[in-house]
Design a protein that fits this description.
Distance between the termini of chain A: 5 Å
Number of domains of chain B: 2
Radius of gyration of chain A: 25 Å
Structural class of chain A: mainly beta
Shape of chain B: globular
Number of strands of chain A: 38
Distance between the termini of chain B: 30 Å
Largest interface: A-B, 17 and 17 residues
Helix content of chain A: under 10%
Number of strands of chain B: 33
Shape of chain A: globular
Oligomer: heterodimer
């Protein structure tokens, strides 16, 4: 790996040598990146500039680069040439013998979302205060995993949601610790961390938890949630102070979104201020975007009677414009579908691989399938072909409907997991007994989406500045398939020189006649050329 | 399936015409491969190597190509009604019941009344001059005809022919003619079965047999456990396409279903008329323009294309329906049915007549208007072998019926096609390799393929060749030897 200066925070973190939370570490790393490796500019002229996507060559981050869109596949071009050289664009007079020559045009490729393996149930509805569980966030806390989830208590205990906490050493086996933080039904012997009835407006619903790299330590954890029963005068005051934070639907339903902060995720301070007035119901997901230097959230909105996914961003986490719809029922889907939850996340270990796992709620069958969408900046989204998770078979624990939670997280066994809630009955079926369990949607590391070559395929990357001299691929080929890579313009690094890669490898180094070096200088502009057959390429990494 | 069990099969193939058309994979090599060691040495099945050390090497494996039909342009209504058209040298000849028509261009027709009646007509190259023209059609047999038929062929008739309409005897009848004008009906049915619309017969020069395509029904045997009360067949089955073959035009075995609505079709679709024909200039390329009747859906029809290398085994050609019922209100806005045959117009367009009505097929016909139109595929571009990105393939070895090759193809302005000619042993003929191919670009109609040193295919007389193609963003419709 080429040399990289350590930021002050990184230095202090290493010096402290403590078991800092991975989520906090990742957040700190985000903050570091603003001051060290790539100094994020003040956002000017749109996200592509903040993210550096206008740069040619593009400066590649270290770490894995999963293929989730076409960003690393060069679009190529047709070069018009004559027998004597390149034809001028403005010829004004007809030129004979003009020939179009394809230059770095990719072929034989498609992107396919990969179905997840289901593990579960891993958490069940088994406490006295749990009638139904839902709305959950999983975070890697460094050495352990935390999972925050909502529980709706049995009807004798009111209708305010509870935020509960579970933890795990491996992400699969979970315990519900007696935290002694919140008194419920006369006892603190529980795992409740927020009692919704004690929230400013007596309601707590549709939450998610995130770690804020931009916050002081005592406010590092944040919970964002939705509440009904917002008094008219609170909405009127917000409307007067900040009209763009109130929409008519939220106003008529007397509801909005609020914030809580915590140093540890367990002891919460709930803020009175209404962030914005909007009807969003389930699952609002927020994060701090270090490129945009903005807080961003995704939540639900409605248009033409369909649930949709909306986005908002702000520099001040306490003051938000109402969200705007960015995704709704795709035109190639069933007209009876709508989008229920967004499950926005960033692929672990990356900064620019924005993903959503929208819940496609099939009203026709009252169940769900989970799809995937990707974005280079969290603003422009593309649907990925394929489904990643389906409602289970009739009679199974998740045979009624499934809803993903928040927080795509690395777990043991070189896997990543997204928690999901499964229910035995269809979504709007009369609810009785104990309702809901949590499972994990699991993929091998970096294998959420395949860049797939069914037969022969070829592509070039854009010009890039690489963070190292060694190339690693995550791939799977048929036994007769292969992947080869050339480093354009570097002697001895042609496709013919490359030792063909085949098999099923999570991280395999590319070599050229046995040599693992790409043969490039630091800061050298590089284009990589890939040729493959009967193969799935999931990610690449340069070290 | 082969005409005789002793017939040798395999490469090289010989074309009955001069045109090679790709409507299925028959003429495209599937490719071969070899597992090799690191030095490129072939490893046989008995070789002992670990699971990771052998590498696959491919030879002539097609890549990046697919077949897709093209929509027809609709032209009509035509001034003349045509039940079938035959391209006979420079002349287009048509029949419609008691009328005979002739044309030099396929549009302006000279009409004559004929002596007799006709269905779908074909010219029989194997017959004596007195029976050069033949026709088949659906008609009732008289009781006397049926008695004579049963005496001669006691087990060769179908229960449906009698049961479908009590009192009637459905049959397929034939007639022969020396000139297409004076017809002698055959004294007995060629087959006693229930067939109905647009029965198509022809003489297959490769099989040396008469072949007939009929309407048939994949109806299962009726249970004997419940006493027979009434005829109940049509509600329980779907119209399908039958086929029968015979060395004797006067006597066909009962036809058997060879193409029925497939599971990827809506369950109410049926196959109404077969529209069997061949490709102009390529009599060994068998096509069916099957009328798919969307019966219970909206009572309209559309035309799906099927192809076959032998007329027996058929495949649906991928891509859109080649012709649809037009918008309601137009002359062909009710239903459409293709009529044999596919012809090549003087400008190179392919055309096939179709019969159409302005109302759906089973709509009350008191005020129905019917007419004939042409489905037209400009420049003969009916099925494309498409390479939307990069594609390559090789043909099976062919005995070339000419020393030059003309191609019918298109590329985008930035696309290209290159051609290589190889020997029987797979090696490129010197001067005819890809490296020496003059790239083809644009709208290539009857375009001669050339190499830097000439446009002759470069083979030695008596030899067969393999053609290899590399395509960028291109479609090939056919190649023709000349």
């Amino acid at each position: 790996m080429w040399g990289r200066k350590l930021g002050r925070r990184t230095f202090l973190r290493i010096a402290a040598a403590g078991a800092a939370s991975a989520a906090i570490e990742a957040a700190a790393s985000e903050a570091d990146d603003m001051t060290t490796n790539r100094k994020a500019p003040e956002p000017r002229g749109g996200a592509i500039f903040a993210y550096g996507y206008h740069e040619a060559p593009y400066k590649l981050d270290s770490g894995p680069h999963p293929f989730v869109d076409w960003r690393y596949v060069n679009a190529g071009r047709v070069r018009w040439q004559t027998p004597t050289g390149e034809a001028p664009l403005w010829a004004y007079e007809e030129i004979k013998e003009v020939e179009g020559v394809p230059e770095r045009i990719p072929y034989g490729l498609r992107l396919v979302a990969q179905p997840a393996e289901k593990i579960g149930p891993v958490i069940s509805t088994d406490r006295d205060w749990e009638f139904m569980i839902y709305a959950h966030t999983m975070l890697d806390l460094g050495g352990k995993y935390g999972l925050w989830y909502e529980a709706l208590p049995p009807k004798d205990y009111g209708a305010a949601g509870l935020l509960c906490y579970a933890e795990s050493a491996d992400g699969i086996n979970w315990t519900k610790p007696n935290l002694g933080v919140v008194e419920f039904a006369g006892s603190r012997n529980n795992n409740i961390v927020i009692d919704g009835s004690k929230c400013p407006f007596g309601q707590f619903h549709g939450n998610s938890v995130f770690v804020d790299p931009n916050a002081p330590p005592e406010e590092r954890f944040k919970v964002i949630y939705w509440s009904k029963n917002v008094p008219d005068e609170v909405i009127a005051r917000l409307k007067q102070e900040n009209p763009e934070s109130v929409d008519p639907f939220g106003e008529s339903n007397k509801c909005g979104v609020l914030l809580g902060t915590s140093p540890d995720g367990l002891h919460w301070t709930l803020q009175d201020k209404l962030l914005f007035c909007h009807t969003c119901d389930t699952q609002t997901v927020a994060y701090y975007d270090s490129f945009l230097r903005r807080y961003v959230l995704f939540t639900r909105s409605f248009q033409f009677g369909r649930r949709s996914i909306a986005r908002s961003e702000t520099a001040d986490v306490t003051r938000w414009p109402v969200p705007e719809v960015v995704l709704w029922t795709p035109v190639d889907s069933d007209p009876s579908d709508d989008l229920y939850l967004n499950s926005k996340t960033v692929y672990p270990g990356t900064r620019t691989v924005h993903l959503m796992f929208p819940t496609v709620y099939r009203r026709r069958a009252d169940n769900c399938v989970i799809r995937a969408a990707s974005s280079p900046d969290g603003i422009a989204w593309q649907w990925l072909p394929g489904e990643v998770l389906q409602t289970g078979r009739e009679g199974e624990w998740d045979g009624g409907c499934v809803f993903p939670g928040c927080g795509l997280t690395e777990i043991s066994g070189d896997r990543v997991a997204l928690p999901f809630a499964g229910y035995r009955y269809p979504h709007k079926y009369p609810r009785f007994g104990r309702v809901g369990q949590f499972g994990l949607a699991v993929w091998p590391k970096e294998r959420l989406v395949a860049l797939q070559a069914d037969e022969e395929a070829e592509f070039w990357t854009p010009a890039m500045i690489l963070p190292g001299d060694s190339l690693y691929l995550n791939f799977e080929t048929s036994r007769a398939g292969y992947i080869k890579v050339a480093v354009e313009g570097v002697e001895g690094r042609t496709l013919d020189d490359c030792d063909a890669l085949f098999g099923n490898e999570l991280k395999k180094q590319v070599t050229w006649e046995g040599n693992p070096s790409m043969g490039i200088r630091e800061d050298q502009k590089v284009l990589l050329r890939f040729k493959m057959r009967s193969a799935k390429l999931f990610s690449f990494e340069v070290r | 399936m082969n005409p005789k069990s002793t017939t040798k099969v395999g490469e090289p193939y010989e074309l009955l015409g001069k045109r090679l058309v790709f409507t299925n994979w028959y003429y495209i090599r599937p490719g071969t491969f070899q597992w090799q060691d690191a030095e490129g040495k072939a490893l046989g099945l008995s070789a002992s190597v670990d699971p990771l050390s052998a590498r696959l090497h491919q030879y002539d494996v097609p890549k990046g190509i697919r077949l897709a039909t093209r929509n027809a342009n609709r032209l009509g209504p035509l001034e003349a009604d045509l039940a079938c058209v035959i391209q006979d040298g420079p002349l287009y000849r048509a029949w419609c019941g008691v009328r005979y028509l002739e044309s030099d261009d396929g549009f302006s027709w000279r009409t004559k009344t004929i002596n007799g009646n006709t269905g779908i007509v074909f010219i029989d190259p194997s017959a004596p001059a007195s029976e050069r023209y033949k026709t088949v059609y659906s008609a009732d047999a008289t009781p006397e005809q049926f008695e004579r038929y049963k005496k001669a062929r006691p087990d060769d008739w179908h229960w449906l022919a009698l049961a479908a309409d009590p009192g009637r005897i459905h049959s397929i009848q034939g007639a022969v003619s020396p000139d297409g004008l004076n017809w002698d009906p055959l004294p007995a049915p060629v087959s006693v079965e229930h067939s109905d619309t647009f029965i198509v017969a022809y003489y297959d020069e490769r099989l040396r047999k008469y072949v007939m395509y009929t309407r048939n029904y994949p109806a299962g045997p009726r249970s004997e456990k419940v006493p027979y009360r009434e005829f109940r067949v049509w509600d329980a089955t779907r119209r399908s396409i039958g086929r029968t073959e015979s060395e004797d035009f006067r006597s066909f075995p009962i036809s058997e279903v060879i193409l029925e609505p497939t599971p990827d079709m809506p369950p109410c679709d049926m196959l109404y008329a077969n529209g069997r024909t061949s490709i102009p200039g390529a009599p060994d390329h068998h096509l069916m323009f099957a009328s798919v009747w969307h019966a219970a859906m909206d009572d309209t029809t559309s035309i799906a294309l099927a192809s076959s290398h032998d007329g027996r085994l058929w495949h649906w050609v991928p891509g859109p329906k080649v012709l649809d019922t037009a918008s309601f209100g137009e002359w062909d806005g009710g239903c459409v049915f293709m009529l044999p045959n596919l012809i090549e117009l003087p400008n190179g367009d392919f055309a096939m007549p179709y019969y159409a009505a302005n109302v759906p097929h089973k709509y009350p016909r008191g005020r129905q208007k019917t007419a004939t139109g042409y489905a037209i595929w400009p420049k003969g571009r009916l099925v494309g072998l498409d390479a939307p990105e990069y594609g390559e393939f090789a043909t099976v070895a062919i005995v070339p019926p000419g020393r030059k090759l003309k191609i019918n193809a298109t590329t985008s302005l930035a696309g290209s096609i290159s051609v290589e000619v190889a020997h029987w042993n797979y090696t490129p003929i010197p001067g005819r390799s890809f490296a020496e191919s003059v790239p083809l670009r644009g709208d290539l109609f009857r375009q001669t393929v050339a190499w830097k040193s000439g446009d002759d295919l470069g083979y030695d007389e008596g030899q067969c060749i393999i053609l290899r193609f590399r395509m960028h963003n291109a479609s090939i419709f056919n190649v023709e030897f000349g």
